[in-house]
Design goal:
Blueprint (H helix, E strand, L loop, with lengths): L32 H16 L5 H13 L3 H7 L27 H29 L1 H31 L1
Helix pairs in contact: 1-2, 4-5
């Protein structure tokens, strides 16, 4: 019986059939620039934590940039302890998209519109209430002012807290 060539289904016509290799384990998969850069960042964090001296850092960075497989990258972290060992060298999934943080200036027009509409609504309600009962008008005016001042204070404190982080 004729031997079949792999994947073609045709006879090999006397040529020896090359055996197929077993699928390599995931750790032997090749790495790209993203994995190498992630490994370099992790090595820099280990250096900042005092686990590596400058000469070791240079050596490991060179080996990380020359790494071809995940095993090569894992070997760089074998003696560095529990802090992001090999998992730090693996990138996020390709489909992961991180949202860009929005700055406060993007929200300024929206906030201004909300404030103007709120003031128009509150002013209309106060006019109707003042026509109905002047005492309720004064109470609503004082209560609304106190609420607005408290809201402004909370907003200022929240922004100051976020800036400190």
């Amino acid at each position: 019986m004729d031997q079949l060539t792999p994947y073609t289904g045709r006879p090999s016509y006397g040529r020896p059939v090359t055996p197929l290799r077993a699928v390599e384990p995931e750790t032997a998969l090749r790495v790209g620039e993203l994995e190498r850069a992630t490994a370099c960042d992790a090595l820099a964090e280990h250096f900042a934590a005092g686990r590596l001296d400058p000469a070791e850092l240079d050596d490991r960075l060179a080996r990380a940039m020359a790494a071809r497989s995940r095993d090569d990258l894992r070997a760089l972290f074998a003696d560095l302890g529990p802090r992001r060992t090999p998992a730090a060298a693996e990138p996020e999934p390709v489909g992961t998209v991180r949202p860009e943080p929005r700055s406060g200036s993007d929200l300024a027009p929206v906030l201004a519109t909300v404030v103007v509409l709120s003031l128009l609504l509150a002013g209309g309600m106060l006019l109707v209430l003042g026509a109905y009962n002047p005492a309720l008008f004064v109470a609503a005016l004082v209560g609304g002012t106190a609420t607005a001042v408290a809201g402004g204070c909370v907003t200022t404190l929240a922004r100051a807290t976020l800036r400190r982080r």
